[in-house]
Amino acid sequence: MSWRPTYRSSKFRNVYGKVANREHCFDGIPITKNVHDNHFCAVNSKFVAVVTESAGGGSFIVIPVSQSGRLDSHYPKVCGHQGNVLDIKWNPFFENIIASCSEDTSVRVWEIPEGGLRRNMTEAVLELYGHSRRVGLIEWHPTSSGILFSAGYDYKILIWNLEIGEPVKMIDCHTDVILSMSFNTDGSLLATSCKDRKLRVIEPRSGRVLQQASCKNHRVNRVVFLGNLKRLLTTGVSRWNTRQIALWDQEDLSMPIVEEDIDGLSGLLFPFYDADTHMLYLAGKGDGNIRYFEITTEKPYIQYLMEFRSPAPQKGLGVMPKHGLDVAACEVYRFYKLVTLKGLIEPVSMIVPRRSDTYQEDIYPMTAGTEPALSASEWLSGIDRDPVLMSLKDGYHRPNQLVFKAPVKEKKSVVVNGIDLLENVPPRTENELLRMFFRQQDELRRLKEELTTKDVRIRQLELELNNLKNVSPNNV
Fold first, then answer.
1. Does the model's pTM come out above 0.90?
2. CB-based contacts of 25: which residues, under 8 Å, 6+ apart?
3. What is the pLDDT of residues 217-273, one digit of tens each?
4. Residues forming a β-bridge with 243
């Protein structure tokens, strides 16, 4: 890619990255060593959640954003999964609700108490079983309060209605592992990248593939919708094994609008797009730097701005929502960088340098707020609405009228769903075989216990019946 300096007028030309002081970092975090290509970190205005290394099963920790510094080695964890946790995402409308997915084929929804955890949490609000293999990705719908998407290694995407705690739709158009998912602004379209080297734009309610691209020269890894620009951006690898980005028209995926080579490194490139500022951030897994660009509707479409550099390599990155940023410091984006070697979470703020202390309306337009535009049933009925917008000028005050209500379900029926909802697929790895074996052993043990208790009850009833027969002749 050409890095020649340009003198195009842009208010974001001088954006710079600022690392937080050591006392504002989170230290002593046992960050997971899992090599799965995910961020392993999720952030909102209240909490930072990070997937951790654990001996048995999978776990993650949830730390209040204000509680920086060194973490106690016995800090409580969320540890209900039986396999490694692969992805975690906060609900955009209920800031105490977080979803997680795991190698144990389950998706779980947790409610974190105010102020954080005081003891280990093992009971989830909802346990969702429907995939026949491990679940690698989860995404909340951007405008509906109770819709969750999950993508598994069974090549299927399930749409969960959390109002009833059941899957309501299965998208079965992929022929290999799904690598990433991204929604457009109102959630009416879903873009996916897949290991079969195809980029797809899907209508999620019907599961119909609207557009599909076979990427021969550009092997797609990650995809992201660029707000309301009707554009898609993908990161991937060229035929010469150089890292590359490509810009696509969402209504015509026959050819990319533009392709740009980045460098010759091998780490996966994660794209982050800020729809309010039209800025694109590229962070490579294992890199120490973060490049940022401005997206325009006219040529050259992708304008290089600057690069944040750091010697510490990043395993993953969490992103603070807009309403959690420091508006007074002209902060337009904030990353939470996972540094595995140091067990450190390092906040990195992207700041627009301004001399004035007043509110800068030109860099803080109305942004997507924390009020859902739709309920789950409304979205499933076919209604689409843009996000409910909010202003950051007067600070952020969360209304307390919304309450997350989980459906009441019997534990036994959920376990049965985990086995019988979809067709069983033979395990491909030894770990999957072991997990399936132990799950069947638990089920056999439970059935044997039920059988024993019923045998005892049958004997008791037979004795009572014999007693009644013996008593009745004497009375006669």
1. no
2. 68, 69, 344, 345, 346, 347
3. 788 999 999 988 999 999 999 888 899 999 999 999 989 999 999 988 888 999 999
4. 237, 263
